Structure formats: structure tokens, C-alpha cells
Amino acid sequence: MSAALPRLHAITDERIARRSDLDDIARDLANAGGSELAFHARGRQLSGREHYDLAVRLSVYQTPSPRSGQAVRLFVNDRLDVALAVPASGVQLGRGSLSVSAARALNPRWWIGKSVHDLAEAEAARTEGADYLVVGPVYATASHPGRRPLGLKRLQAIVAAMGDLPVIAIGGITGDRVPAIRKAGVYGIAAIRAFWDDAEPAEAARRMREWMS
């Protein structure tokens, strides 16, 4: 982990993974996001082969771009077998995933993140040895319709309690909300629609990179 953890995390889901224009959008995001961007190959309903194929398609951007000389990192959510096979720069663990220590044993060079939803889970993940946390949902989001949003005050409290441990905010993130989220002290942001569904994905990534820098 010689490079810095990216601040922008563009996460996929099943819908994004199966879009015919996935490669075009990924290329635009990569060109604008550069080293501050990470793609997350994620899709809970994807088959193992689909998840692997998705990760392979996104992994090509780990080679430095001829235009910028910067590389986008690939993270794989949940499927550590896929992360090993591609290979990936990092993994994102959820509640049902292997432990941080088990993931570390598979590849000590991975960034290993943990998804958490409140202060107690954040403290447990820090104790477990996670390299960063993905905290949310900050706002109401269609991807977690039954979960109460944290809001900015609770997010800020988690950030303050974690000290130097990077916190990535997720859940209902839109471009116009990024400045307020940044003021909460987060290290970075993660989103699906704000990246993949924007009419101008390159501009969206460029704008968010400027706000988070």
C-alpha cells in the first residue's frame, strides 16, 4: 500500500454491472478521477463468473493512463476469491464477510475496508484492524430502503471518534451534497448513481475530485 487510499469510490451494483455502456462510463470516470478514484466491483446478486468478469473489466484501469500517467485502483466487495484472481488493490468487507485478519492473511498488501452503520460497529472495525471504514447511509438511499440514515451530525461524531482512520461516506451521496459531507471531516466519498448515472460522468468525477482534494 505504497500509494494513498483513493478518496472517490465508484461502486457498482447488478444494474451497473450489466449496462451495455459500462466500459464507456468507466473510461470517462477513470480519465477524470485518476489516482483519487477507486472502482468497486460489487453486486450481491451476481454469479461468481459475473463478478469476476466485472472485476476484470474494471481492473484494466489499474494500468497508468497514457494521458495522465495515473492509475485507478480496483476494490472488490465481499468476494475475496475474485479479488485474488484479478488481482485487486483492495477489498471491502461487509457484515457477512470474512474477518479483517483472515483477509489480511490472504494478501497483506490489500487495502482492507469494513462497511459499518453506527459508532459501535466503527469502533469494532477499528479494533479488528481495518485500514478504512465505509460509513452510512448518510442520507436515505434506494439501495438500503429500510435503514435509517445517519445524518451529518452522527457521521461527524464517528469521524471524530475514529481519529486518523479514514472514513468514506456512503448513502444518498450527490454532487451538491459533497461540500457539506466534506465539512463533516470525512476522508472520501462512495456512491453508485452519482458516478455511473450522471449524464456527464467525467465532469462529475472531476468536480468531486476537486471538492475532496
Secondary-structure topology with pairs:
Elements: E1 8-11, H1 14-17, H2 22-33, E2 37-41, H3 48-59, E3 73-77, H4 80-85, E4 90-93, H5 100-106, E5 111-116, H6 119-128, E6 132-135, H7 151-162, E7 167-170, H8 178-183, E8 188-191, H9 193-196, H10 201-212
Helix pairs in contact: 2-10, 6-7
Summary of the model, kept short:
With about 210 residues, this protein is of the alpha/beta class.
Detailed description of the structure:
With 213 residues, the protein is of the alpha/beta class. It has one domain (8-212): Aldolase class I (TIM Barrel). 40% of the residues lie in helices and 17% in strands. It contains 10 helices and 8 strands. It has helices at residues 14-17, 22-33, 48-59, 80-85, 100-106, 119-128, 151-162, 178-183, 193-196, 201-212; strands spanning 8-11, 37-41, 73-77, 90-93, 111-116, 132-135, 167-170, 188-191. An 8-stranded parallel beta barrel has the order 1-2-3-4-5-6-7-8, surrounded by 6 helices. Helix 2 (22-33) runs parallel beside helix 10 and helix 6 runs parallel beside helix 7 (151-162). The protein starts with 7 loop residues before the first strand and ends with a helix. The mean pLDDT is 94.
CATH topology descriptor: TIM Barrel
Tell me the helix content.
25-40%
Q: If helices are DSSP runs of H or I spanning 4 or more residues, what is the number of helices?
A: 10
Order of helices and strands: EHHEHEHEHEHEHEHEHH
What's the CATH first level? Alpha Beta
Poorly predicted runs of 5 or more residues = none
Structural class: alpha/beta
Number of strands: 8
Estimated share of beta-strand residues:
15-25%
What summary fits the major beta sheet?
A: 8 strands, parallel, barrel
